[in-house]
């Protein structure tokens, strides 16, 4: 059982008490399977991105052995081309429920591995996970397009989908920077990655036309900030532009317009983006608002339909709780979480000289 001492950075007035933090961490741990896999909830599927998000939350809570088990699950189930399937039935690799391979899902392992290393300083872990990370990055970069954006996925038959998602590419941008941090730490230069992250960041910042139009989704609004491609005045301008459209004061952040539905994961991620751009007060407000999603037992409902006064869907996901814990950890000064999501210490890659 996680002790209050191990979750001291997860205590945030108005958001989590020490006892509540322990309860939420225990809720995520209860979802984790014996083999290390962390599905959305027991009986539901696992996807690699949300699996990593939950593992990072465990590290932020001091549950390093559980987090390491989650990364070992990824190492054990990585496919020969460096990827993972988009969904597994409750973590069972023999029962992949979506055999597509999504680029941002596969890239996110780099964020988790760097976060775990910063949390533990475990060189043996890094030695095992470095080749896993390299193979994943190579899979992802084979989907990079001439304009810098990252193609969405490969279909089950291997066909590349070259259309790019702004949210996904913004997440890949963070992943590549974490992969470069790993490479620098190991003194193994990766010039191709440096070029790739430079082109990708340029595309996210300056070329919205290179991405599919998903502007109805709040993730497309804040993810260029959360992923680190936008900072400073550009980040401020972007957040202000979408604030009234997506933020429902007192309740949280809409998932998609015009639906009257706020979601815990998007709200916590927006809070993390706000913290990263220096607006901790607004981040704290968001985290306080979404405490209405907290369920008995310490987990969080995925979302709330405010026109119907109804929690929907009727599920409490490991990644919703995980994203909230990571936002709280950042505000609380957890060093690994600050470095990974603050981005100041992550390599920026090589910026292109032209368009």
Structure description:
- It is a single chain.
- The protein has 355 residues and is α+β, with helices and mostly antiparallel strands.
- It has a single domain, classed as Glycosyltransferase, CATH 1.50.10.10.
- Helix content is 52%, strand content 10%.
- The protein has 14 helices and 10 strands.
- The protein has a 5-stranded antiparallel β-sheet. A 3-stranded antiparallel β-sheet has the order 3-4-5. Strands 1-2 form a two-stranded antiparallel sheet.
- The termini are far apart.
- The model has no long low-confidence stretch (mean pLDDT 96).
List keywords for this structure.
single chain, 355 residues, alpha+beta, five-stranded antiparallel beta sheet, three-stranded antiparallel beta sheet
Present the secondary structure layout.
Layout (H helix, E strand, L loop, with lengths): L17 H14 L16 H13 L3 H14 L9 E3 L2 E7 L2 E2 H5 L1 H12 L2 H19 L9 E4 L5 E5 L1 H21 L4 H16 L11 H9 L5 H15 E2 L3 E3 L6 E3 H13 L3 H10 L13 E3 L4 E2 L6 H14 L3 H8 L13
Antiparallel strand pairs: 1-2, 3-4, 4-5, 6-7, 7-8, 8-9, 9-10
Helix pairs in contact: 1-13, 2-3, 2-5, 2-13, 3-5, 3-6, 5-6, 5-7, 5-14, 6-7, 7-8, 7-9, 9-10, 9-11, 11-12, 11-13, 12-13, 13-14
């Amino acid at each position: 059982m996680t002790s209050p001492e191990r979750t001291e950075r997860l205590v945030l007035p108005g958001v989590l008490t020490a006892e509540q933090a322990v309860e939420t961490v225990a809720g995520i741990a209860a979802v984790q399977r014996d083999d290390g896999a962390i599905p959305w909830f027991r009986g539901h599927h696992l996807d690699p991105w949300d699996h990593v998000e939950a593992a990072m939350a465990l590290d932020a809570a001091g549950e390093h052995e559980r987090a390491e088990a989650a990364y070992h699950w990824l190492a054990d189930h990585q496919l020969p081309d460096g990827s993972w399937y988009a969904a597994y039935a409750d973590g069972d690799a023999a029962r992949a429920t979506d055999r597509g391979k999504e680029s941002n899902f596969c890239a996110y392992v780099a964020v988790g591995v760097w976060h775990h290393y910063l949390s533990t300083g475990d060189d043996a872990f890094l030695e095992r996970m470095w080749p896993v990370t390299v193979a994943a990055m190579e899979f992802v970069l084979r989907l990079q397009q001439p304009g810098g954006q990252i193609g969405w996925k490969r279909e089950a038959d291997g066909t590349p989908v070259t259309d790019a998602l702004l949210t996904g590419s913004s997440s890949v941008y963070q992943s590549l920077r974490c992969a470069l941090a790993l490479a620098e730490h190991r003194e193994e230069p990766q010039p191709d990655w440096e070029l790739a992250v430079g082109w990708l960041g340029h595309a996210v910042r300056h070329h919205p036309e290179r991405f599919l139009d998903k502007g109805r989704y709040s993730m497309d609004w804040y993810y260029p900030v959360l992923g680190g491609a936008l900072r400073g005045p550009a980040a401020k301008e972007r957040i202000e532009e979408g604030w009234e459209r997506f933020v429902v004061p007192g309740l949280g952040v809409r998932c998609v317009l015009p639906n009257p539905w706020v979601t815990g994961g998007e709200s916590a991620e927006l809070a993390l983006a706000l913290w990263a751009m220096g607006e901790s007060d607004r981040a704290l407000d968001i985290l306080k608002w979404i405490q209405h999603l907290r369920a008995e037992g310490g987990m969080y409902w995925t979302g709330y339909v405010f026109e119907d006064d109804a929690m929907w869907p009727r599920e409490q996901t490991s990644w919703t709780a995980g994203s909230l814990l990571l936002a709280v950890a950042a505000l609380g000064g957890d060093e690994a979480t600050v470095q990974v999501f603050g981005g100041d210490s992550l390599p920026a890659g090589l910026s292109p000289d032209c368009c």
